[in-house]
Design goal:
The structure is a single chain. A hairpin with a 3-residue loop joins strand 15 and strand 16. This protein has 10 helices and 18 strands. It is an alpha+beta fold. About 45% of the residues are buried. About 25% of the residues lie in helices and about 35% in strands. The protein folds into 2 domains: about 20-260, Rossmann fold (3-Layer(aba) Sandwich); about 265-375, RNA polymerase II/Efflux pump adaptor protein, barrel-sandwich hybrid domain (OB fold (Dihydrolipoamide Acetyltransferase, E2P), Beta Barrel), CATH 2.40.50. Helix 3 crosses helix 4. A 6-stranded mixed beta sheet has the order 6-7-8-3-9-10, with helices on both faces. A 5-stranded antiparallel beta sheet has the order 13-17-14-15-16. The radius of gyration is 24 Å and the shape is elongated.
Amino acid sequence: MTGTAGGARATAGPSVGAGEETAGGPGETGAAEGGLDARLVAERGTFRLDVALRAAPGEVVALLGPNGSGKTTALRALAGLLPLTGGHLRLDGEDLERRPPESRPVGVVFQDYLLFPHLTAVDNVAFGPRCRGTAKARARAEARAWLDRMGLADHAGKKPRGLSGGQAQRVALARALATRPRLLLLDEPLAALDARTRLDVRARLRHHLAGFEAVAVLVTHEPLDAMVLADRVVVVEDGRVVQEGSPADVARRPRTDYVARLVGLNLYRGEARGHTVRVDGGPVIATADDLTGPAFVAFPPGAVTLHGDRPTGSGARDARRCAVAGLESHGDLVRVDLTGELPLVSDLTTVAAAELDLRPGATVWAVVDAARARAYRA
C-alpha cells in the first residue's frame, strides 16, 4: 500500500470480506496442522476487542489499523500480557492460556526494543536461552551466531547506548529469535527508525522473516510495512476485523474509508446495476465491471481529470461540478480534495494545476474515467 488520500466515502464492510477477499485467509490456514488459532476477546474499560486470527507455520500476518483500533491490545493478548475475557488462544494445538507468559514459546520485539542497558548486545541475545536453562557458554555462542546472521558480529560487545536505532532493532530481533519461538510478535518494529534506516531494516527484516518457520504477527499502522513484510493483512478497526486478505487483495479492493485512504483510492458504496453503481444517497458512477447488487466502487485519484469549464464531447455527460477544498503536494503531483455531490480526490501534474489556477474555493468540473473505476461486491 502506498500513499494516503482523503476522499474515501464508504461505510465499513462486513467483519470479514466476501469470499473473493479472503483467499489465503482463515478458511485455508485454519485447516493446517500447527500454527496459530485464536479468537481474542478482551475488555479494557469501555473498549472491547474481538478479533479472530489464524496463521499457518511460516506465515507472516500483519495487523493493520489506526491508532486505538486494538492492534496493540491484540498483541498483548497473544503475548499473555493481557488476559482474555473470552475466546481461545491455541498455538500448535496447545492451549496457551494455561501457561504463564514467561513459559510460552513466544518471542516479542517491542516498539522501543527494551534492550537491557547494562548488558552487551551478545548478552542481550543470550538472555533468553539462559533463562530457559542453556549453559552460559553455549548461550553466548548461539547469541554470537544470531548477531552474525543479523550483520552485527562486530557489535557484539557494545551496549545499547553504543548502537544505532537500526542496530538496536536487529539486536532485539535476534534476542527474540534466539529462543526459537513458535510465535514471533513484532510491535511496530520500524516505528522508531528514521526514513533511510527504515528502508534498510525493512529489507533485512523481510529476509529474516522469509526464513522463519513458525508464525509471525506484525502489528503496524504503516501500510508499506504490511505490504512488504506480510503474506496476509488483517485490518482492525474499533476492536474488530473489517477486512483481510493478501496485501494485493486489500490494496486493490478496500472495504472501509480507512483502508481506502491508506492505499490512495476514492471509495464509495452503493447499488450496482450493470456497468453503473448508484452511490448511497448520491449520484451514479460508470464502472468497468458488470455487477448487480450491493457493491463498492473504487478508483485512483489519477482517474479523475479536472476542467475549468464544463467539458464537451464524450466526457460531458458524466462531468460533475465540484469545489476545491484543499491542495497538497503528493510526490511530484498535486493532490486536490474536492467537495460536491460526489466528493472526490484528484491527482494532477503541477503544470495542469497551475493552468487551472486551482485554489481553495475555486469551481472545477471533474470527470471520472469509467475504465479505471472498478466495482466489486460489498
